[in-house]
């Protein structure tokens, strides 16, 4: 018989398991055992420089690539919506939560990304979870092994078979598609710009394989919509394939400086998701201020291409400078700059050295990356100055001196680059 102890909230006895008694995750254990505290650190300011522990440091670990989350035009648009509509829609889109702001944003995003229709959701994670409504247990999903967790969870929720191909390996994807049942529904899913590695999916090859094998294709443009392409329309525009992808998903929390998600594609598919996706039907609508902020950001993205140019200029300097110091930055050619460390504990030490030197970065360990492929993630922003980039490079040089030589990082079995045009991104 189990006895509940109110003093510590636990059960005594062995007759049943306690769902609250699970072991801590590997990430939790790592954070608890480390002298550093790289996770859940509260900041007291936002922008190119942030406040932490009473200090002001350079923010080099933020997805606000274009610096729009603190742009006065964006914050004023959010404030106007806040005054007019309040802080919440207090309901799901399907019932009482739809505003004209949502519909305007959907029309604008469909035209911008290049699709018949768009659906906006409260978060990017929910947008990807909505894909589960397109799948069932008779379908098969072919997914890049480095896809975002939200895409992985969407497949799990759907019950579809999950076939994962090696990162950006077109040969492996081709073999998996060829071995699958042509009578079943088949879907290829990939990130456009990978959030940790900073490289691009080989989209031309993926489009060709999907067509050859009769599969549908979904691309998650969370990190590339607003950043890549001549007009900032994402990886599809970068490769000259706008309109050639069946469905594009994305988020408004990166380049758009707001929060929310999007799905852009054929009108019948988008309409099906409006009424069939549980993450849409049973979630409160995107707050008015977030929708208004995204609209204002879209105006700026369309009218100020120099912001994208500035970000890529900073990325070129960082990649060249870090490589000259001996850091391994993989195959990145975008503003996502991974600095591979390998060992998780050593990664946390490097993170702390960088913070001590006045630069806030991201310490990324498993499960976000493969084991023994821990990395420091650095992301420049349009609001950074040349002096900020100098400070980031100086902090890495100091960390290198203090930490000393690093052991070789496992390769991760990355395939040859192939026809991916990655080098052209920052050329």
Q: Layout of SSEs?
A:
Elements lengths: L2 E3 L4 E3 L13 H8 L15 E4 L2 E5 L12 H14 L7 H5 L2 H14 L3 E5 L2 H6 L10 E5 L4 H10 L2 E5 L4 H10 L6 E6 L11 H11 L2 E5 L14 H4 L8 E5 L9 E5 L1 H10 L1 H4 L6 H16 L2 H19 L12 E6 L1 H13 L2 E2 L1 E3 L9 E5 L7 H18 L18 H4 L2
Parallel strand pairs: 4-13, 6-7, 6-8, 8-9, 9-10
Antiparallel strand pairs: 1-2, 3-4, 5-11, 10-11, 12-15, 14-15
Helix pairs in contact: 2-12, 4-12, 7-8, 13-15, 14-15
End-to-end C-alpha gap: 69 Å
Radius of gyration over C-alpha positions, nearest whole angstrom:
22 Å
The number of helices is: 16
- The shape is globular
What percent of residues adopt helix (DSSP H or I)?
25-40%
Describe the main β-sheet briefly.
Answer: 7 strands, mixed
In the sheet with the most strands, the strands line up as 5-11-10-9-8-6-7
Count of DSSP strands = 15
- Strand share of the residues? 15-25%
* Low-pLDDT regions: 414-424
Mean pLDDT: 92
Structural class: alpha/beta
Give a short summary of the structure.
The chain is an alpha/beta fold and 427 residues long.
Overall description:
The chain has 427 residues and is of the alpha/beta class. The protein has 16 helices and 15 strands. The chain has helices spanning 26-33, 72-85, 93-97, 100-113, 124-129, 149-158, 170-179, 203-213, 235-238, 267-276, 278-281, 288-303, 306-324, 344-356, 386-403, 422-425, and strands at 3-5, 10-12, 49-52, 55-59, 117-121, 140-144, 161-165, 186-191, 216-220, 247-251, 261-265, 337-342, 359-360, 362-364, 374-378. A hairpin with a 4-residue loop joins strand 1 and strand 2 (10-12). Helix 2 (72-85) runs antiparallel to helix 12. The longest helix is centred in the last third of the chain and has 19 residues, at 306-324. It is globular, with a radius of gyration of 22 Å.
């Amino acid at each position: 018989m189990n006895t509940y102890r109110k003093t510590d909230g636990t059960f005594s006895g062995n007759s049943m398991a306690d769902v609250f008694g699970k072991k801590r995750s590997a990430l939790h254990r790592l954070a608890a055992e480390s002298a550093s505290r790289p996770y859940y650190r509260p900041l007291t300011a936002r922008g190119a420089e942030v406040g932490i522990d009473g200090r002001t440091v350079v923010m080099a670990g933020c997805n606000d690539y274009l610096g729009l989350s603190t742009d006065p035009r964006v914050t004023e648009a959010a404030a106007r919506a806040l005054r007019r509509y309040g802080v919440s829609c207090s309901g799901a889109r399907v019932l009482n939560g739809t505003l004209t702001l949502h519909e305007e944003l959907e029309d604008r995003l469909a035209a911008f990304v290049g699709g018949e229709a768009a659906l906006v959701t409260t978060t990017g994670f929910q947008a990807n979870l909505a894909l589960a409504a397109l799948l069932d247990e008779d379908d098969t999903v072919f997914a890049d092994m480095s896809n975002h967790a939200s895409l992985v969870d969407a497949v799990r929720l759907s019950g579809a078979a999950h076939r994962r191909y090696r990162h950006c390996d077109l040969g492996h994807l081709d073999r998996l598609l060829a071995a699958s049942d042509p009578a079943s529904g088949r879907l290829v899913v990939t990130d456009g710009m990978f959030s940790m590695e900073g490289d691009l999916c080989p989209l031309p090859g993926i489009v060709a394989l999907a067509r050859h094998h009769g599969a549908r294709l979904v691309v998650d443009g969370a990190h590339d919509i607003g950043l890549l392409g001549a007009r900032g329309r994402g990886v599809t525009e970068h490769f000259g394939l706008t309109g050639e992808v069946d469905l594009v998903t994305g988020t408004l929390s990166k380049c758009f400086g707001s929060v929310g998600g999007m799905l852009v594609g054929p009108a019948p598919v988008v309409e099906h998701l409006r009424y069939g996706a549980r993450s849409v039907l049973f979630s409160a609508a995107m707050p008015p201020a977030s929708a208004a902020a995204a609209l204002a950001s879209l105006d700026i993205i369309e009218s100020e291409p120099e912001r994208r140019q500035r970000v890529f200029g900073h990325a070129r300097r960082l990649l060249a400078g870090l490589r000259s110091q001996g850091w391994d930055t993989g195959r990145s050619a975008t503003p996502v700059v991974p600095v591979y460390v390998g060992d998780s504990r050593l990664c946390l030490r490097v993170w702390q050295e960088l913070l001590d030197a006045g630069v806030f970065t991201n310490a990324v360990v498993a499960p976000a990356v493969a084991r023994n492929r821990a990395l420091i993630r650095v992301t420049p922003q349009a609001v950074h100055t040349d002096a900020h980039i100098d400070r980031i490079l100086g902090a890495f040089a100091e960390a290198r001196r203090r930490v000393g030589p690093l052991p070789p990082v496992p390769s991760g079995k990355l395939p040859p680059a192939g026809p991916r045009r990655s080098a052209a991104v920052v050329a």
